[in-house]
Amino acid sequence: MAESEIILAGEAAMLAFGQKLAGLVRIGDVIALEGGLGAGKTTLARGILEGLGLEEEAPSPSFAIVQPYDIPEVRLPVAHVDLYRLDGAAEAEELALDDYLTDSLLIVEWPDRLGEGAWPDALRFHIDIEPDGARRLTARVPGAWTERWSQI
User: Fold this and answer.
1) How far apart are CA 129 and CA 11, in angstroms?
2) 55 Rama sector, left if φ>0, alpha if ψ -120 to 50, beta otherwise
3) By residue range, what is the domain housing residue 37?
4) CATH number of the CATH domain containing 86
5) How many domains does the chain have?
6) Distance between CA atoms of residues 65 and 93, nearest Å
7) Reported pTM
C-alpha cells in the first residue's frame, strides 16, 4: 500500500479535492476518512458528493449514522457513514455496511471504530490540522487505486 501526503490550504481546497476524487470513484469503493473532531472529514465527503452531482449541502451523518444518496441526485449510489457514535464493531454489524458495496460507493468517517482490519482495500485518508489551519491528508493508497491515484 503506497502512502502519499497532500496539503490543502482551506475548506475550498478540501471541497475541490473531494470533487476531483469523485471523478475517479467506482461502485464498490470504500473511502475511509480518519482524523480528530473538526479535521475536515465531513467537508471532504461533501466535496465528493458535490462532485457526484449532489446540489444541496450534504448533512453530517453523525446522528443518522448512514446517509444514503441515490440516482438521480448523484451519478452513482453513495452511503455516507459516520461511525463516531458506535461503541464497537458489533454495533456496526447491524448496519450491514458491506451490503452497500454491491451497488454503491461507501464513504466512512471514523472507520477506526471497526478496527484496523476493516476494508483493507479502502482508500484511506488521515486528516491532520496544520498550525496554519491547512489540512494535511495522508493517503494510504491500495492496489485497486494505484492507477486512478496517478490522476490526482
Assistant:
1) 12
2) alpha
3) 2-149
4) 3.40.50.300
5) 1
6) 13
7) 0.93
